[in-house]
Amino acid sequence: MQKNDLAPDFSLLDQEGNERTLSTLLVNGTVVLFFYPAALSPGCTKESCHFRDLADEFAQLDAQLVGVSMDPPERQAQFALKHGLNYPLLADVEGVVARLYGVKRSLGFLKVKRATFVIDRDRRIRDVITSEVSMNAHADRALAALRT
Description:
Strand order of the largest sheet: 2-1-5-4-3-6-7
Number of domains: 1
Structural class: alpha/beta
Mean pLDDT: 95
Number of helices: 6
């Protein structure tokens, strides 16, 4: 997926077992959809907590945070509880959504690439952030994209 592409719609369970659909989320504003390799891992914790710490800034820009990994809902719930993550963490256990967005890895421990998609209400992708090494870059660059 690239800038200006139409984001594929999807439905996944969140950490509480609730079904979340992209098109429904978009009714409430822009979605900052970020894929992370593994809940509770050090890098993903740092990235997710940075998003959490900037949540008020995202809200002021009418944007909502949504994390996605291939972890099951139970692990997502542990992750959210342990780190006070107050946004949906979606369980893409089979990697279907990761494939749709082009972030599914074919080999290795890390099942998905670290990538963030800023998706406007019309499902157009405003920006794509793909840094694998800077855990803060995703939230910082997503905020910058929302401000332009």
